Automatic annotation (TrEMBL):
Keywords: NAD, Oxidoreductase. The keyword NAD applies. Residues 10-307 form the D-isomer specific 2-hydroxyacid dehydrogenase catalytic domain. This is D-2-hydroxyacid dehydrogenase. Belongs to the D-isomer specific 2-hydroxyacid dehydrogenase family. SUPFAM superfamilies: Formate/glycerate dehydrogenase catalytic domain-like, NAD(P)-binding Rossmann-fold domains. It holds the Pfam family 2-Hacid_dh. The lineage of its organism: Bacteria, Bacillati, Bacillota, Bacilli, Bacillales. CDD domains: 2-Hacid_dh_1. Residues 107-280 form the D-isomer specific 2-hydroxyacid dehydrogenase NAD-binding domain. GO terms for molecular function: NAD binding; oxidoreductase activity, acting on the CH-OH group of donors, NAD or NADP as acceptor. The keyword Oxidoreductase applies.
């Protein structure tokens, strides 16, 4: 009996060929995340991507589903308890975003240190004005919450600017390009050293509103906060208060608790805040990179029964 892979994202002919080559004995069917075919999905052993409304079809008693390869790194909107209960393997796209997101992080950092965000506003008003408080990155400290692919790439680039790098992770294990790494329970000691505090964390029960008034109060006076992880890791009201008080000098935000960010939200009117619309991970190389992950995982799944890359630990929610 032929086994089925259903992909809910568009693939080029060459990308389809790579997947088929990695999975002999499987058919590859293309579906749509916007208009999923529940009958098509019901017969799938492997699903690439996810969509609203497909959980019931994929997780009922008749489903053939054994493995879901997420099209994104974040999985907080997926039915993790149901997937775990059914014994479904889940893998993510972790690593795909490292280069574009690190570029956005340093876009924020360079904008703040060189007042580029203010220069753009002045240009729109035809104002010739220099602020005189521009600074440099050499000798500054970047505190990076999350030492995975994104955090690691950010630390590597920071080293090129001769910055000190401090990591914060669940385990506190040493990691490449980090001068030191603290356990997340040591957040106060870590953030007190940061000129830039960068949040790359996933949203889990443990990280929800981790960045709150208590944590912001431990920030170094006049430091900057950057969040490209998940909006729910930050208490937005507490962040606004820290910005209004001047304790935090500015914030670069790509993710928010409510998305899209409402038009009447106070963050829009804060000149010390740079907002991007959850687009930090966008890149024209996205599909090619995730197909490379998929093909490696397919080879491992066929050989051993389990994918080898980015397998989710349900107990950690990532």
């Amino acid at each position: 009996m032929t086994k089925s892979i259903v992909c809910l994202q568009p693939l080029t002919p060459s990308q389809q060929a790579k997947i088929r080559e990695a999975a002999p004995g499987y058919t590859l069917e293309l579906g749509s995340a916007k208009e999923p075919d529940l009958q098509q999905l019901a017969g799938a052993e492997i699903v690439i991507g996810w969509a609203k409304g497909i959980g019931e079809a994929l997780l009922d008693g008749e489903s053939q589903l054994r493995w879901v390869q997420s099209w994104s790194a974040g999985i907080d909107k997926m039915p993790l308890p149901r997937l775990q209960e059914r014994g479904v393997l889940l893998t993510t796209a972790s690593g795909v975003h490292a280069e574009p997101i690190a570029a956005v992080i340093f876009g924020f950092i360079l904008s703040f240190t060189r007042n580029l965000h203010k220069a753009v506003l002045n240009q729109s008003k035809r104002e010739w004005h220099s602020y005189g408080n521009e600074t440099e990155l050499s000798g500054k400290t970047a505190v990076i919450f999350g030492t995975g692919a994104i955090g690691g790439e950010t630390a590597r680039i920071a080293k090129a600017f001769r910055m000190k790098t401090i990591g914060v992770s669940r385990t506190g294990k040493p990691a490449a390009d980090f001068d030191e790494v603290f356990q997340i329970s040591q957040w106060q000691e870590a953030v007190s050293q940061g000129d830039f505090v960068i949040n790359t964390l996933p949203l889990t029960d443990d990280t929800h509103h981790l960045f709150n008034a208590a944590l912001f109060s431990a920030f170094k006076e006049g430091s900057y906060y950057i969040n490209i992880g998940r909006g729910g890791t930050t208490h937005t009201g507490d962040l606004i208060e820290a910005l209004q008080s001047g304790h935090i000098r500015g914030a670069g935000l790509d993710v928010f608790e409510t998305e899209p960010l409402p038009q009447d939200h106070p963050l829009w009117g804060m000149e010390q805040v740079i907002i991007t619309p959850h687009s930090a991970g966008n890149t024209d190389r996205y599909a090619d990179r995730i197909v490379d992950i998929i093909t490696e995982n397919l080879k491992s799944y066929i050989a051993t029964g389990s994918p080898s890359l980015n397998k989710v630990d349900y107990s950690q929610q990532y």
